[in-house]
Each structure stands twice: as structure tokens, then as C-alpha cells.
Amino acid sequence: FDIIGDIHGCFIELTELLTKLDYKIETVEPNLVNFGFKVIPPINRKAIFVGDLVDRGPDSPNVLRLVMSMVNSKIAFCVPGNHDLKLQKYLNGKQVH
Fold this sequence. Notes:
Elements: E1 2-4, H1 11-20, E2 24-27, E3 37-40, E4 47-49, H2 60-72, E5 76-78, H3 82-91
Parallel strand pairs: 1-4, 4-5
Antiparallel strand pairs: 2-3
């Protein structure tokens, strides 16, 4: 397992890390399953994202798209962090600070 946390919206750094870990990342036509990314993992490896995908960094939307595509492809697991849960509350109409 490759355990990755505290990405905080830093998409470029995430792709650099995954590339160093031998994941192959391709941009593809987006749909409801791949969200615009095709990721090929190293043999017998799986990523585990342990929270705080969003906030602070410049590109939270692409971080979410990439991680969601990996989870949908069953090559990653994801556990939300407090920043992710705060975004979820906001998207559900609750006021957050």
C-alpha cells in the first residue's frame, strides 16, 4: 500500500508523487467513472488516501477528480479528513467557517 495524506489541493505535487511511486497517469475524455483520468498502478500496489484532499492548495477540484477516478477503478481507497468533511457540509448547504 502507498499511504498518502494531507494533499490539501496540491494537484501538481500529487501527480509528481504518484509518478515517483510508478503510477502512470493519463488524461482521458471525462465521464462519470474516470472523471478525466486513467491511472495504472504499479503491480500489486494500491493507494490509500488518508484525508485532507482539499483546501489551501490551488487545485482541489483536480485532486478530487484524480482520487475519485482511482477509487472508482478500485486501485485506491480513501478516508475523508476534517477538511473534506467540512467541504461536504458546505456542499450540503450548511454554514462552515
